[in-house]
Design brief:
The protein has helices spanning about 15-25, 50, 60-65, 80-95, 120-140, 150-160, 175-180, 190-200, 205-210, 215-220, 225-230, 265-285, 315-325, and strands at about 5-10, 30-35, 45, 70-75, 100-105, 105-110, 145-150, 165-170, 250-260, 290-295, 300-315, 335-345, 380-385, 390-395, 400-405, 415-420, 425. The radius of gyration is 25 Å and the shape is globular. The strands form four sheets. It has a five-stranded mixed sheet. A five-stranded antiparallel sheet has the order 16-15-14-13-17, with no helix packed on it. It contains 13 helices and 17 strands.
């Protein structure tokens, strides 16, 4: 923990949904849910209007529809989210060279590396206010909530206190006053299982946790977690802001519309994922030693199996062979809804000829059925030769319905077309060079 409130945490408010509301004027002020459009979809982001009905991230699309049936359910436009995120991260880097992105919508900023006259509370508060103004300016109206404190832990906690569109600055010396009344789940790593174990021990708040001896916490939760919680309950967190976050693993996974039962098909899917993992590793200059497969069964049971090589590899064929061998030990007769392959233990070198003459994957290629492409997913950008730009409101029975509006227009008219209307086109962003 620092002696100054010099670590800033920025969190864009309901980011994906906010971008959709920005670009679709008719949805402003209304419940918007990104994700959950398919039978097995889950909610990625819900607008604050949808959250009033109890909709939240990671909720199944089925439950979200039951709670808020009048919401706009959109499939998501990641090109728009990436573009907006880039603008925000650029603003952060203009403030300080030390920026640690956590995701598209969240980052830490080290204000000690910023060009500020001092790190007094008034100075960092003004810097935070100006940052929020700049974010709103470059994103076309999106809001962000900011927390500023003496550590990463406290800054992130602070950014949750005044959502949306707010800011909390924790003055040095007041950290424990802020933390003590809070529930223990405010501490990173305290999930439902840990919270229940603490509850059974009579520990409900951070103040309760602070009163427990370190040895007792270690006995209750294990060495690593017990020691970590003992420190955070005392606001002890010395982690620096790291501008380049080291990748710990590279993985690819897919969820399927119907349960997979064909073993050859599963092996083929794993092989294709493994080749993609290998390609991404080579592109980023990585190799790895531990190959892991993730298998989610028909009943949502999730299985993980791993195998560690003696030397790192980036060869997709090698990764595929190991992934298939791991699958062979699992009972998948009831059906599989998700498959994934990952490699961890990353290094920046490769052991040549790890398997001698077997670098090529000699498995017969499985002909994999392509998942049906939803030509007109809800929320997708389209252009009509006469009506101009708009977005897909819905589709079905050979018809696609479009609302013609953009971020810079008032709410626009709604028109329906045949799905094969030659005047209607999906709009895709130009390919990045």
């Amino acid at each position: 923990m620092r002696s100054t409130a010099s670590i800033l945490h920025l969190d864009l408010d309901a980011f994906f949904a906010a971008v959709e509301q920005r670009d679709k004027p008719s949805l402003r002020g209304k419940p918007v849910i990104v994700g959950g459009t398919g039978g097995r979809g889950v909610v990625s982001t819900a607008s604050y209007e949808a959250r009033e009905f109890g909709v939240g991230s990671a909720m199944s699309g089925r439950e979200a529809r039951a709670r808020c049936p009048h919401a706009a359910f959109l499939s998501g436009r990641f090109h728009a989210y990436r573009d907006t995120s880039k603008r925000v991260m650029q603003v952060l880097r203009e403030l300080s060279p030390l920026v640690e992105p956590l995701s598209l919508d969240e980052a830490f900023v080290d204000l000690a590396a910023a060009d500020l006259p001092d790190l007094e509370v008034a100075t960092v508060t003004a810097a935070g206010a100006e940052l929020r103004r700049r974010v709103q300016e470059v994103t076309g109206g999106l809001t962000a909530t900011v927390g500023i404190a003496s550590s990463k832990f406290l800054a992130k906690v602070a950014s949750e206190l005044d959502k949306p569109d707010g800011m909390t600055v924790v003055a040095p010396g007041t950290e424990l006053d802020l933390l003590r009344p809070m529930k223990v789940k405010v501490i990173p790593g305290v999930g439902p299982a840990t919270a229940e174990r603490l509850r059974r021990a009579g520990i409900h708040t951070v103040a309760d946790l602070e009163a427990v001896a370190e040895g007792e916490l270690v006995r209750l939760l294990g060495q690593a977690q017990g020691h970590g919680l003992w420190q955070l309950a005392r606001a002890q967190d010395s982690r620096p802001v790291v501008s380049e976050r080291e990748a710990k693993s590279i993985s690819v996974e897919g969820t399927y519309d119907s349960d997979l039962t064909d073993r050859k098909l599963m092996e083929g899917l794993l092989s294709r994922q493994a080749r993609e993992v290998g390609t991404r590793m080579r592109k980023n200059g990585f190799s790895g030693r531990t190959v892991t497969i993730k298998v989610r069964l028909y009943d949502f049971t999730t299985l993980n199996r791993s195998s560690t090589l003696t030397s790192p590899t980036d060869d997709g064929a090698t990764i595929a062979r190991i992934a298939r061998s791991l699958l062979a030990d699992l009972d998948t007769t009831g059906g599989v809804r998700l498959l994934g392959v990952g490699v961890s233990g990353l290094a920046d070198w490769v052991q040549e000829d790890l398997f001698g003459e077997t670098a090529e994957d000699e498995e017969a290629e499985v002909v994999l059925p392509e998942p049906p492409r939803r030509t007109w997913p809800p929320g997708a950008d389209v252009v009509h030769d006469e009506m101009g730009a708009g977005w897909v409101w819905g589709s079905g029975s050979g018809v696609v319905t479009v609302r013609f509006e953009t971020a810079d227009t008032p709410p626009g008219p709604v028109r329906s077309f045949r799905i094969d209307d030659p005047a209607l086109h999906r709009w895709e962003p130009p390919a990045e060079e």
